[in-house]
Each structure stands twice: as C-alpha cells, then as structure tokens.
Amino acid sequence: MKVTSSDLEGMEKRYRARFVNSLSGYKSANLVGTVNGDEQTNLAIVSSAFHVGADPALLGMIFRPASVPRHSLENILQTGSFTVNQVHSQMVEQAHQTSARYERAESEFSAVGLTPEYSNKVMAPYVKESRLKMGLTLASHQTIDLNQTVLVIGRIIEVFVAEEAVQADGYIDIGSLEAVSITGLDSYHAGERISRFSYAKTSRPVRSLTVSGSESDEAS
Maximum distance among all alpha carbons in the chain? Predict the structure, then answer.
C-alpha cells in the first residue's frame, strides 16, 4: 500500500486523523492536570509529551489549535502551571474518558473517578492514582504556523515516582510501573522490555545490560 500526499488530502477527515496519528508509532500516555484562576480543575489525556532537555529539565507537548475551547491549554497559559501524570494499566479507561468534551465547569477528575492531589510546589493538581507524575511551570509556548497547533514547553519542578523503580544509574524502570502507550487516537498498549544496551561506541559492539544497568549475557 502506497499513500501519497494527494491521497492524504483526499481522505475522509476522521479516517485521515486516525491514519496519520498511527504513523508515529507508540506514544506515551499521560494525563495533564491543570486548574484555572477560579480553582476549577481540568484533566486531559495527552499523547504528545516529549523530552526536550535534561539540564535544565524540560518537557514539551503539542496542543491542537485553539479553534474550539482548549481548557488545558487555556489554564496553562493563565496560571503557568501544570502536571503530567503517567497512565498505567489499571487506569486506562478512566484516562481515555477524559478526552470527552466536558463543560468547563465540570471537572474530569470527578467525571471519571480519579483523585486530585496537590503539593506546595505547583498550583495544578496531580492524579493521585498515577505512579509517575511531574509538576511543571510554563517555560515557553509558541503557535506553529504550519497548522496552528501550540507547542508548550514546561520546566520540571518536581517528580513523584516509586523509589524502587529508579535504578542506581538514574534509569527509571517504566515497565515496573505498568505504564501504557498509545497508538493512533484510541489504542492502548502495555510495554515489554526487549533489552537495555551499553553506551554505543564505534570501537566495540553493544552489550546487553540488566534493568539495573550492569552488564549481563542476557538482559533480564
């Protein structure tokens, strides 16, 4: 099957959205928690979060154009605060339901049965049920001229994660948290590690590592 740009342009709108969204493969599933100035909370499933840098610690996300109300984006721009909460296998249905178009005055937390919790570092609510969560402040945002989507970059202020998932070398064993990924717009997947590998160098072949980062004949 070959698909050209003219084929893409001729596709029915929803078919094209599902097709193109599937092309980038597995994406992380996260819930973005926000609040507005009136303390109205909001929660939204996002599959566009990506690493921007480690020093300083930055995370980016893409939001769809503001052609209709985008409560999460509006709240982030208003308060400069948001949380990113990783979705695990026991909360997939609730997380997906947050994509429904609830009215601004109705909190997705209450609507889907998830629990907001707060810290003294960021204004926005966390998802109590999540096993890996980050609090961020808005560092930068810009509208992308090509399609009017909005790039938001946040500075990571704090992280909550089970201590046993963090390895001695800093690697976080996401698999032990039962984190899920998304393909397309609505398909959720459980991850399975193939291996960790040694740092790649031209002078030697890569070697398998254990989860903790030590060398092993076969990674566990």
Answer: 60
Q: How many CB atoms lie within 10 A of CB 149?
A: 15
- What CATH number does residue 40 fall under? 2.30.110.10
CA distances from 220 to 39, 200, 217 (A): 46, 19, 10
Number of domains comprising the chain: 1
Domain assignment of residue 126, yes or no = yes
CA distance 214 to 124: 38
Give the whole-angstrom CA distance, residue 168 versus residue 147.
Answer: 42
Q: What is the pLDDT of residue 12?
A: 96
Q: What is the pLDDT of residues 161-211, one digit of tens each?
A: 999 999 999 999 999 999 999 999 899 999 888 788 888 888 888 888 888
The residues near 76 (Cβ < 8 Å, ≥ 6 apart) are 34, 82, 138, 141, 152
Containing domain of residue 150, as a range?
5-194
Dihedral, CA of residue 26, residue 45, residue 55 and residue 81, to nearest 10: 170
Question: Does residue 158 fall inside a structural domain?
Answer: yes
H or E element in which residue 5 lies = helix 5-10
CB distance 164 to 172 below 8 Å = no
- CA dist 53 and 61 (Å) reads 13
* pLDDT tens column, 69-106: 789 999 999 999 999 999 999 999 999 999 999 998 99
